[in-house]
Amino acid sequence: MRLASSEGKPAKASRTQKTVLIGLIVVVVLIIGAYAGMHYTSRPQFCTSCHEIAPRVASWETGPHKDVECLSCHAAPGNVGYIVRKLSSYKEVYLHFTNQVPAKLEWTPHTDACLYCHSGKDSAYPKAKNITLAPGSASNAPPISHQPMIDGKVSCITCHGNVGHTPKAGS
Fold it and tell me: For 46-104, how does the pLDDT look when each residue is reduced to its tens digit (9 = 90+)?
């Protein structure tokens, strides 16, 4: 980068300008790398490569939500929910590599994620049952009222505990 000097001769860019430019390039590369890494590590194939959830992923692949991305259910809706979930996964990585994985893996459901998809707000899944519709009023309406779930009085998994992952025979 050359700038014109007051004498008409090209002037070299200042060291500060070069440092700022290099710094901006590094920041952009890091942001793109972090974004790509977060999405790559969200794939079930990545998680099952060394994780204890392989049986759960196998059951998900045969369940009714097999076309739904993992973090659509396992994180609160939105970018903040996604980032919070990705950051909390560091604990899981730590437990895995220190051989401290609990015998029974528990999942805390995000009812907001269920409601986001099943209220018609998530355009990625337009054919999902819409629990805000009156029972039987449309092809994507549920057969019964889900008002207690909408009101937050009942968790979705009370009735739909295995909907994301089909249970194995005998379990």
Answer: 877 766 778 888 888 888 888 888 888 888 888 899 889 888 888 888 888 898 888 87
Q: What are the backbone dihedrals phi and psi of residue 106, each rounded to the nearest 5 degrees, phi first?
A: -110, 150
Length reported for the chain:
171
The three-class DSSP label of residue 22 is helix
pLDDT tens by residue, 10-38: 556 688 999 999 999 999 999 999 888 88
166 within 8 A of 61, measured Cβ to Cβ: no
User: Quick one: CA torsion of 26, 88, 79, 75, rounded to 10 degrees?
Assistant: 150
- The structure tokens 């973090």 sit at 71
Residue type, 142: P
Place of tokens 């909408």: 150
Backbone angles phi, psi at 153, to 5 degrees: -90, -20
DSSP string, 32-67: HHHHHHHHHTTSHHHHHTT-TTHHHHHHHTTSTTTT
Q: Tokens at residue 8, please?
A: 């008409």
Cα(76)–Cα(70) distance, integer angstroms:
11
CA atoms of 63 and 165, how far apart (whole Å): 6
